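Researcher: Please predict.
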Amino acid sequence: MNETLKRINEYGLIPMIAIDDAKDAVPLAQALTDGGLPVAEITFRTAAAEESIKRIASSLPAMLLGAGTVLTVDQAERAIKAGAKYIVSPGFSPAVVKFCQGQNIPITPGVVTPTEIQTALDHGVDVVKYFPADVFGGIKTIKALAAPFGAVRFIPTGGVTTLNLPEFILFDKIFAVGGSWLAKKETIQSGKFAEITKLAREAIDVMLGFDLGHIGMNSPDANASLSIAKQLTSIFNIPLKEGNSSNFAGKGFEVNKAPGLGAHGHIAVTTNTIGRAIAALERKGVKVDLTTAKKDAAGAMIAVYLKDEVNGYAIHLLQKK
């Protein structure tokens, strides 16, 4: 996969920005970076777009910078020269797609129908923008379209907010989600960049959706495991579920049949999107032990441990179902 597309997928969230005054570009980009989201799609809906891209690219070269609402080859060329690393268009333009491909720049054209998706595939594009998502059926329609087009990944934009973000991000055909709510025009114009940082952090938290899954306890053998699990089921009047390598008391307690990772056991933390959770944690300096990863029958990762224990407990990430 193209490195730029890989980074977009790992971030999972693309702030879509319309800037009226280029002087706000760098403070805005810094605010997003401070919020843990160093990625932005500057839309060509305003006259300041090109200059804004140029200033951000110069001041914050690590920012993953794209240009949106690109309608013509001229706009695409100007955006790329200014420093955009990827191009987004609201519809499908063969001319724009061919130009970007010739420049080795990723482009995600907008689609809403099977015919448009087929056209994208015919042009070698398998990551597409689904716009406007709320008007054209949202996640329900995307799931229907994904069925016959298994190789296609979608970036829904339009009507996506923190309220419905989890329902999109839990679907494995969602490549990323774009949203203008992260940095609205009025917020930028009023210079409330601390608010943008806060919104970025909140959006990442909602996207990842970390929750306590269960507590795992180590035991010396199968007999001890069953005894401990039965004790917990008796105390809390919860069901017992016997397994091959462990026994569960309800959904909250797992008792291993042999000593496992962690001096005391493990804490399972569930997440909406395990791949993006790994990427987000690693950006914070948290190490993940990929040798412990488990995958489902389709080859998708569903579980992995962090490298370091916390107070004697191994931390186990689990993909929500």
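Model: The chain has a mean pLDDT of 96.
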